[in-house]
Structure formats: structure tokens, C-alpha cells
């Protein structure tokens, strides 16, 4: 399962768009919470603004998802029939293209936060983003023009995994544990960390996942389980939107906390930043 030579499928390209939209929506929600004014009138106005903004964001995600249906139905049908190997290949192709922020960028965007406070904010933001994807897929599922259920499952799976791998990478940045090597090497390591539910462990021979290795098989099992949870978003009417949002939020938060706890035990930043922000 070497990531070299893989190129994203049409559906994976669309999943990258969903990741970007979902992360932007989650960031906006976080900013609205931080800027909420005191007083009953301010709270009510802020609540209405957040609900309106969230609805607009979900509609944007739905537009990206419906575009996926038009662009990639045939490709997705082939990919879904190929099973976990197709999903794992696409995750490895997607990972180096994820917009991971450096530590300097994160500290600039979130000043006056300790490493643990910054990590907690990233985990909550990622959980909001993955919940938004579940809600959007659930709402999209009631539309009459969908070509296949496999399209929805593949798109949600890749989108949520992309959000979570981005989170894994940025938590490594926060705790000063980013591995060496090229972007492909680092992001492949983060894919392995996502599959293993712990921080990157450096080992001789590099970070590339080799086809048939225990780690490659574990990745395929994780992706199969993730795809199985995506089925919840296909519930009747809008019950799938509710279920998909709740499950995605819970699972992303759980993953983030597992990675954070493992990194914190080994981090040079565990007791605070070593110096001023770059």
C-alpha cells in the first residue's frame, strides 16, 4: 500500500472539497461562540445567527456532495465494489493534499492558549466539522436524484477520515511531535497513526504502508468500520442526518483525545511552549 503513484479519484477530490467546507463551517461556529455577547438579547441574537449560519453551511456541503454525485457515480461504483483496498488507496492519495496548519500558524490563529488548550480547541473543531458532514449527507440522502447509496457512503467516509487525519497531523504539530521526511512520508505516518489510534511511532524503513503489512490491514479494517458507521446517515427522512451527526462528532472527539493523550505523554511541549510563537 505504498502511497507513491496514487492519484485521487473523482470522489476523493470531492471529499477534499467537503473537508475544506466542513472545516470552514466549524471554524465559523467556533468564532461565533467565542464572540457571543453577554445578556439575554445578545444570547438570543447569537443563537439565531449561529443557526442561520449553520444552515447555510450545511447547504454548501450539500451542494458539494450533489456535485460529487454528478461527477463520480461510475468511479464510485467501481471503487465501492473493489472494497477496502480502494478506500485505503484513496486515503493515502488524499492525505498529502490535506491543508495541515503548522505550529506557527496555529499559535498565530489561537494566541494565548496553552498546548492543551489549543489541542482541545482543535479536537472540538474537528468534531463539529465531521458532525456537519454527517448532517449534510443525511439531508442529501432524502433528495430524489441520488444515483447510488455507495456514493454517499464513500463520500462521507473519505470526508470524515480526511477531517480526522488533518486533526491527527495538527495535534502532532501542537505537541512538537511532527515526524521528519517529505510531506508524503509525514502524511502517510499520520494515516498510520489514525489507523492505530496513537501518535506516530518512528521506525527503521520509513513510514510508507506496505501492501499486506499488519498496519495496512489494520487501516483497511478501520476504513471498513468507518464506512459501516456512515450507513447511519442514510436513515429515513432526516433521522439519518441526526444520527450521522451525533456518531461522527462522538467518534472524532474520541479519536482526538486518544491521540492527544498519547502525544502529551511524550511531548516536549507537555508543560508549556518552549518559546514565543514564530
Give a short overview.
With 278 residues, the chain is mainly α. It contains nine helices and no strands.
Strand content: under 5%
Stretches where pLDDT falls below 50 for ≥5 residues? 1-5, 37-42, 73-79, 143-147
Instruction: State the order of secondary-structure elements, H for helix, E for strand.
Output: HHHHHHHHH
- N- to C-terminal separation? 36 Å
The major β-sheet equals: none
What's the total helix number? Answer: 9
Assembly state here? single chain
Question: What overall geometry do the principal axes of the alpha carbons give?
Answer: globular
Question: Any idea how many domains?
Answer: 1
Category from helices, strands and their pairing: mainly alpha
Average of per-residue pLDDT values: 76
What does this structure look like?
This protein is mostly helical and 278 residues long. It has one domain (10-266). It is built from 9 helices and no strands. It has helices spanning 10-34, 40-82, 84-94, 103-109, 115-140, 149-174, 183-196, 214-230, 239-266. The protein is globular and about 45 Å long. It starts with 9 loop residues before the first helix and ends in a 12-residue tail after the last helix. Mean pLDDT is 76; it is low at 1-5, 37-42, 73-79 and 143-147.
Amino acid at each position: 500500500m505504498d502511497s507513491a503513484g496514487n492519484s485521487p479519484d473523482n470522489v476523493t477530490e470531492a471529499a477534499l472539497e467537503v473537508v475544506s467546507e466542513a472545516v470552514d463551517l466549524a471554524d465559523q461556529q467556533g468564532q461565533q461562540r467565542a464572540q457571543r455577547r453577554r445578556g439575554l438579547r445578545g444570547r438570543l441574537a447569537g443563537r439565531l445567527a449561529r443557526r442561520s449560519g449553520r444552515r447555510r453551511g450545511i447547504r454548501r456541503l450539500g451542494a458539494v456532495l450533489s456535485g460529487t454525485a454528478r461527477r463520480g457515480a461510475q468511479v464510485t461504483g467501481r471503487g465501492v465494489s473493489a472494497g477496502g483496498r480502494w478506500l485505503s488507496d484513496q486515503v493515502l492519495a488524499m492525505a498529502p493534499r490535506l491543508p495541515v496548519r503548522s505550529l506557527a500558524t496555529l499559535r498565530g490563529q489561537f494566541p494565548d492558549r496553552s498546548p492543551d488548550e489549543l489541542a482541545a480547541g482543535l479536537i472540538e473543531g474537528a468534531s463539529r466539522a465531521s458532525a456537519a458532514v454527517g448532517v449534510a449527507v443525511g439531508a442529501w440522502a432524502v433528495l430524489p436524484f441520488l444515483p447510488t447509496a455507495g456514493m454517499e457512503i464513500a463520500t462521507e467516509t473519505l470526508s470524515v477520515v480526511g477531517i480526522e487525519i488533518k486533526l491527527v497531523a495538527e495535534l502532532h504539530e501542537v505537541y512538537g511531535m511532527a515526524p521528519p521526511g517529505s510531506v508524503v512520508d509525514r502524511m502517510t505516518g499520520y494515516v498510520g497513526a489514525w489507523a492505530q489510534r496513537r501518535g506516530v511511532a518512528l521506525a527503521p524503513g520509513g513510514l510508507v504502508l506496505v501492501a499486506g503489512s499488519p498496519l495496512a490491514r489494520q487501516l483497511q479494517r478501520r476504513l471498513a468500520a468507518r464506512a459501516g458507521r456512515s450507513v447511519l446517515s442514510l436513515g429515513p427522512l432526516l433521522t439519518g442526518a441526526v444520527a450521522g451527526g451525533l456518531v461522527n462528532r462522538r467518534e472524532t472527539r474520541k479519536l482526538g483525545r486518544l491521540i492527544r493523550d498519547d502525544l502529551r505523554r511524550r511531548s516536549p511541549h507537555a508543560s508549556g511552549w518552549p518559546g514565543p510563537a514564530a
